[in-house]
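Hello forum,

I keep getting stuck at the same step: I have a sequence, I want structure tokens, and every attempt I make locally crashes halfway through. Rather than fight my setup again tonight, could one of you with a working pipeline run this one for me? It's a single chain of 153 residues.
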Amino acid sequence: MSEKEKKQLRAVVKEPGKPAEVRMLTDEYTVYRELVGGLIETVPLPDIEGVIAVLNEEGKLINLDPNIFLPEYNDLLVGTFLVVGDSRYGDFKSLTAAQIEQVTRYIAANDASGYERGEDEFVGFEVYASSDGDGKIPFMEILFGEKDGGAEM
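Reply #2:
Ran it on my machine without issues. Output:
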């Protein structure tokens, strides 16, 4: 399929600290992955029929910036995400004008750009193992050896 023939869809894109904007996107996995900065995951937006948010699957683990609250789930979306229509068959589709209005209103009402998270909150973690009371040793160091990630042979 040539570049001109690729399916285009209308989506709402929201970057942390910026207002949501409507964009025309090529319906390809690589486009979504580039926008969110990694592997994608989908989450339904509460109370808006037929739409899903597409976001970075590891966003909380890699401490991406807060974007919007999802108070219905007591959760937070982090990093850049986009909202697209969801077909009953798992395909993405363009948002309708009514969906765009609902989505942009929801995003504006739940903006989290000024949210300051604490060191020990849910948006990232480190795993440690103890070693005879000598202190904490990062778990990945135990698995892979030296601190620089090199394995000891």
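The helical segments are 29-36, 97-109, 139-144. If your local run keeps crashing, start a new thread with the error log.
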